[in-house]
Amino acid sequence: MQAVSLSKQVESGGQPLKILHEVTFTVEAGDSLAILGASGSGKSTLLGLLAGLDIPSSGTVLLDNVDLFSLDEDQRARLRGRLAGFVFQSFQLLPALTALENVMLPLELHGASDARKRAADALQQVGLVARASHVPKHLSGGEQQRVAIARAFVTQPKILFADEPTGNLDAATGAQIIDLMLELNKAQGTTLILVTHDEALARRCGRQLQLAAGRVM
Questions:
Q1: Which run of H or of E encompasses 121?
Q2: Which helix (H) or strand (E) holds 182?
Q3: Distance (Å, rounded) from C-alpha 137 to C-alpha 159?
Q4: Element (H, E) at 202
Q5: Digit-coded pLDDT (tens) for 88-131
Q6: What ranges make up the beta strands (E) of the chain?
Q7: What is the distance between the alpha carbons of residues 198 and 98, in angstroms, rounded to a whole number?
Q8: Are 4 and 22 contacting, i.e. CB atoms less than 8 angstroms apart?
Q9: Whole-prediction pTM
Q10: Distances (CA, A) of 45 to 41, 164, 181, 188, 211
């Protein structure tokens, strides 16, 4: 993945507000990159642009050698579906589905005939096979995030985007979640791009990118 002179500007109170300034970097396949910065530094905006969820004011992103912003919204969504997985701070599990059904969902959307077996294997990898039949409200925060990670990795994405994946967890559980993500990153060769404000967790990644007021430090 390559970010090329990414900038993002919005209108605020009738005045232009620059959120990101000419951000350029490359992430090699299989690397783990932590994007660090204080609240308001542009971390989540940058992640949204890298995933093609938002449009830059200028610059572009090359994902799997494809210029994301030469594609329309539907084409970007298809590319994400084929290449990317996501883990969010708020877990984003469907409350009416069991852990197993939540992990099966992206496989079923892709028409996989072996969705149940692959989802069960993914839950085994994250140590939650015994909780497969539980709905999210009967799982702890750490368990819910493990389900979210299993769901993200079950399609074996080339790249995983994680936005503050430990933000709603205590320090010990958060460290376990990062351990798990880095283990799967190595086992599957998935490129990991992680947004965090926690420097100790960021140091666990192979590289760190520090943002301040929308600029790479």
A1: helix 115-125
A2: helix 171-188
A3: 29
A4: helix 199-202
A5: 888 899 999 999 999 999 999 888 999 999 999 999 989 999 99
A6: 2-12, 15-26, 32-36, 58-63, 66-67, 84-88, 159-163, 191-196, 207-212, 215-216
A7: 31
A8: no
A9: 0.90
A10: 9, 13, 22, 27, 11
